[in-house]
Fold this sequence. Notes:
Elements: H1 9-34, H2 39-50, H3 53-57, E1 94-98, E2 101-107, H4 121-137, E3 144-152, E4 161-172, E5 175-184, E6 193-200, H5 204-211, H6 215-218
Antiparallel strand pairs: 1-2, 2-4, 3-6, 4-5, 5-6
Bound molecules: tetradecanoyl-COA.
Tetradecanoyl-COA binds next to helix 4, strand 3, strand 5 and strand 6.
Amino acid sequence: MSDPVDVDDDLAQRRRAARELGAALRELTDAAVSTEVDAATLTDLAEQVRALVPPLTAASRVRGEPATVDGGQRARRMYNPASGPGNPIAPPMKVEIVDGTAIGRCTLGLAYEGPPSYGHGGISALLLDQILGHAHSTRGKHGMTVKLALRYRRPVPLQTPLRIVGRVERVDGRWTESVATISTEDDPDTVLVEARGVFAVPSAEQAKRLFGELERLVR
Ligand SMILES: CCCCCCCCCCCCCC(=O)SCCNC(=O)CCNC(=O)[C@H](O)C(C)(C)COP(=O)(O)OP(=O)(O)OC[C@H]1O[C@@H](n2cnc3c(N)ncnc32)[C@H](O)[C@@H]1OP(=O)(O)O
């Protein structure tokens, strides 16, 4: 995915690098949860992986500090746990807005396994919460989840391209009520999991209390 043209070269380069590291760590995670190598190899690898931590923490941020790689004007949440390409925890789900509907795509590997060969229910909730958030954001401002109700109709298959779709049903001031579904790309009409969510844009006072200086990033 390309970055906006007005993102400066240094930021674009850092985003590319963060995306690359995220992808490499995802590969590593996938290998780590599917490996069947012996204990000695695992122990040796654990040591090698730990050696990667100090170079990363040589410069790092703490809670309350935005990631510089997220950028200023055209902000991009690079480390979002559902859609951030730089976050190895994220599948990552790629999201686009088509005619006011949020459409997400991703494939879940073995790292997201719940019942054997199917996705963990909490991961479905993560993807649905995220897509509902994007649907809410189509109405102007980012919001926070106030309520999230799920119905798990069928298990979500791993290693299968998924389609996650969310749209706003009702708007009431700073509140929205939206619906979302997960299905497979091959069979988009069969709903595997469905969700209904209420999102709210925090009031100015709430945003200041919750986010302080970071308020501008979430409103
Ligand atoms: C930088 C680039 C970013 C790009 C990313 C974009 C996408 C991001 C995607 C991110 C996705 C991930 C997102 C995340 O992970 S957000 C993380 C998870 N969510 C939270 O942590 C939110 C925690 N909640 C709060 O802090 C407060 O509730 C807030 C501040 C949000 C509102 O606090 P406030 O004090 O204002 O309200 P209330 O809490 O008293 O609750 C009010 C009660 O009233 C009902 N209610 C009232 N009016 C309406 C209405 N019109 N229509 C429908 N319902 C309405 C309401 O349901 C509730 O009902 P009940 O309690 O009686 O049952």
